[in-house]
Amino acid sequence: LIEGKYQPMTHQLFTAAFITLNPRCYVLNDPRTGKTGSLVLAADYMQRHAMITGGVLVITTVTTIPDVWAGSIRETLPGSLVSVVHGKGREAALAAPAEFYVTNYDSCRISKKAFIEAVKAGRIGAVFIDEVTHVGNPTSARHKAINEIVNGAGVLVVVGATGSPAENAETVFGMCRMINRNKLPVTTKTGWLDLV
Q1: Which residue from 164, 149, 158 is spatially nearest to 183, judged by alpha carbons?
Q2: Residue 119 CB: number of other CB atoms within 10 A?
Q3: Dist. CA 190–CA 196, nearest whole Å
């Protein structure tokens, strides 16, 4: 199973197993506990066992694209086809097959149609949203664009990850609406705020 540079810690294997058993879930492990590695291991398992078809879209901050995500994937799964989907070549990168597509939130907003097309064409079969609090504002253009990619295009496996879950009720609503909208007891932000 493990081909790469690092031997996973036990809790990372448990987290990866949790993800594979819960196709729409949150990974809220503490900072610096290897969430990235857990997500990569889960993706590899799901791809190898045909639990997802197509690649995994990782949405993260610009600063973590090269080292934290693309680098970690290559170190954990040597030989994996990793496509960095950022900048002027983002739409061309999305058009080619890959096991992992790593992008940032605003690229999803700018090239929303290309991401939706990649999902509908089967090139993207799962979405991992790193620092999911960044899409917590349900009225923002960023949230709306990623919501159309994730929920509008029908992605079945969606994982939100953060080591610092939101304390703001509106942000929590936005995160829940993105990952598990069908399990919310209400459908509007106002209804949510009335509950808390």
Answers
A1: 158
A2: 22
A3: 10
Q: Rounded CA gap, 99 and 54, in Å?
A: 7
Would you give the end-to-end CA distance of the chain in angstroms? 43
Retrieve residue 174's tokens.
């936005």
**Three-state DSSP state, 160:** strand
Nearest to 130 by CA among 36, 43, 12: 36
CA–CA gap between residue 168 and residue 5 (Å, rounded): 38
Q: Which two tokens stand for residue 183?
A: 């399990």
Nearest Cα neighbor of 59 from 100, 92, 17 is 100
Q: In this predicted structure, what is the pLDDT of residue 99?
A: 98
- Read off the pLDDT of residues 84-101 as tens digits, 9 standing for 90 and up: 999 999 999 999 999 999
* Closest among 87, 192, 188, 103 to 149, alpha carbons compared: 103
Q: Provide the token pair at 28.
A: 């809220």
